[in-house]
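Task 17 of the worksheet. Students: predict the tertiary structure of the chain below and write it out as structure tokens. Keep your answer in the requested format; marks are given for formatting as well as content.
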Amino acid sequence: MDIWAACRDEVQPEPLEGRLIRMVENQEQTATRALVDDLAEQALLEEMLEAGKPPLPPETAGLHYLLATPFRYPPLKHGSRFGARHEPALFYGSTALGAALAETAYYRFVFWWGMMDPPPAGRLMTEHTAFGAAYAAGAGLRLHRPPFDAFEHRLASPDNYSDTQLLGRRLRGAGVEAFEYRSARDPRRGINVALFTPRAFAGPKPLWQQTWLCDTRGEEVVFYSKEEGACRFALGLFLVEGELPTPAV
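Model answer:
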């Protein structure tokens, strides 16, 4: 369905600003530390790895790597919620920590159940960084408000991205820089944010950073931070008709 065609006569992109939270796995530095003997060797190895990555878009110049990195990689095999496989990547975040944790928990389950052989220990321990950033787009939309909220069942579909990918293409073509939408993974139905362009950031650096540990098992994901304590997500929260949906992989 073309949601943009149904709504465009009733809306006009307008300034959109706020603060978002994103969580990323501290995968690379952890991996490189295990391969070298000292910090100098680690720095050299990371430089070599950096040289082999896709180039950063020019628009990310001056941005902290946590803000710039999502724009350098293409989407997953079948795209993302609002981006098709052949389109430039979006920066996704959430306006509340709970929604950011729920989104991350979903993808931890996707990773776990996508493994050919789960870890013998029956669990996977990883370290993550949650960080905050400010956004201020000149042309933005709130998809959780009228007239778009009439299509929330499509916008927040847990297992089908076809309608939202088409909408993402339409929004990009209309010059929209950023938009908010309701999370499909957060049990509290929190608000997520998507940025089409690095220009939508209000500053070049994260506002804050926080370390989290994540314990992933087949039926539960548990996050823990010194500041916030523990937060648990059961697999059942994300199932659709008894199956874990994976529309992007």
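Marker's comment: The first strand starts at residue 14 and ends at 25. Residues 97-114 form the longest helix (18 residues).
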